[in-house]
Hints:
Rossmann fold
Amino acid sequence: MSNNTDTVPESYPMNSGDGTNSYTENSYFQKAATNVVKAKIDDVIAEKLDVKKNSSTSESTFRLADLGCSVGPNTFLTMHSHTMQNIIDVVQHKYQSQGLASHMPEFQVFFNDHASNDFNTLFASLPQRRSYFATRVPGSFHDRLFPESSLHFVHSSYALQWLSKLLEELLNKNSAAWNKGRVHYASAPDEVAQAYTDQFAKDITTFLDCRAKELVVGGLMVLIMPGIPNGIHRSSAPTGMIFDFLGLCLIDMAKEGLISEAQVNTFNLPVYVASPKEMTQLVETNGCFNIERMETTQPRARVDGISGQALTKHLRAGMEGIISKHFGTKIIDELFDRFSKKQQESFNLLESKYNVGTQLFMVLKRI
Length: 367
Ligand code: SAH
């Protein structure tokens, strides 16, 4: 079933459990992101989901997948009052309002993440009162996860920015894309950015190919990820600045001999921030989906003052796994202390960058 056998997908699980540095306690931005898109998702289901077609088949189960679900509680908070449960509520309402109540399907939600994800914490926080059957699906979404034409709705929030692997050119001293002294492409030369762009394009192409097989015709896919508006330089996006700060902290630590310079040179964060324009191009090349929505939004519009500490903890929850895999666990506390100071020094600058859309929201329909 694999159409991606030549690469071994890397996995970077979010911090597990529910301690102060866990992803559970620190998925603040993701939650804010979800609040902003909730109404948009409701509209899309109301306008775009064809329940008449579903009810005319013998199929009596409506299957939804949350790809890159992580450990929550956002997933469940999300699911219960916002995304997955909300999607089901809206779908149910649509059946009723179209006189199809007697054809109401049962609902099954598939929670997907890498096999190394802390599914135990996730499933332990599953609300008891829910109107769906819950199933875990371990594995990379850069590969097939479901049988052909078996899904009706796909949701994925803040997961598609993770690249499936590190980019070889970035490590090659003889390449123009050698990313010496940096850990990301935001402020790097164009050759480095291009290497990231190429890997992202490959990953999204594979993702779309797999989902095209798995979704029924008419099925909807809601994808939310960090984004950058068309025409904005990569170094001006807040996400880029944050990764730059992290890189600067690592370089300082190398200068002080806490880690080696070679370690920094061989480390690159496999995270990409896409624009609507490039996503549109990738979807159009794939050819299996109609673009129903494609826009950058401002996820923090309804969130009041976020502290720098929350930002540091958020970053740590998401990045500690991959950083300690490369540098070891010993440097983590020191690194994030330094990051915290660095971003405090530049917090006003960072805040001012947030006036551009930092979230890419898209809805695709299988045609
Ligand atoms: N959707 C949640 C979690 C976002 S964190 C939320 O919005 O809060 C991103 C998650 O994506 C992580 O748990 C990570 O393990 C997962 N992820 C990244 N790449 C993946 C892949 N190729 N396949 C499956 N899950 C992946």
